[in-house]
Amino acid sequence: MPNAGLPPWLKFLDKTSVIATALTAMVCLHTRSAGVIYFGAGSLACALSAKLVKLAIRQERPVSGRKVTYGMPSTHASACIFFAAYATLASIYLPLHPRIHPLLATYAPLVMISWATLIVLSRVWLGYHTWPQVAAGTALGVCFASVWLRFWVEDAGGMRTLGGELERWIDDSVMPAIITVA
User: Fold this and answer.
1) C-alpha distances in angstroms, 42 versus 103, 114, 115?
2) pTM value?
3) The three-state (H, E, C) secondary structure of 81-124, written as one string
């Protein structure tokens, strides 16, 4: 077992991709918000972008590391920083979705920034990345979140408009049908 000797808190940080994916899925199901789904898609797009950059740069990971793929930029750093940056920017610039509690919108970015910072640091502590690799992942995550949110705010390609129509259709047609069957 590769992380058997790690303290529990570091094991937890090592499993963040599974935890973040599950939490995002729960928020998507709870809110049925096109904006939250768009946010999740942005995180995937950011991670895939980091992987493509890794293939282009082809920089090795630290010698002491347990991973064999390329390390520059850190995909975990880019994805978790995307989460924290997007959530923070969205809480500042977007109206609150009716199914999201105001306290969640207020405190989630604070928790996400703290958690993302620990995740980024843990990638070095675990020996998966160097400081420059996590710094590059962090920069990619912040930039990607800023651009991704701007696309949503400016309704690029009608994405936000389509999302609103999809939400109304689900609320007006799909959910009543599901409730009736249940």
Assistant:
1) 24, 20, 19
2) 0.75
3) HHHHHHHHHHHHHCCCCCCCCHHHHHHHHHHHHHHHHHHHHHHH
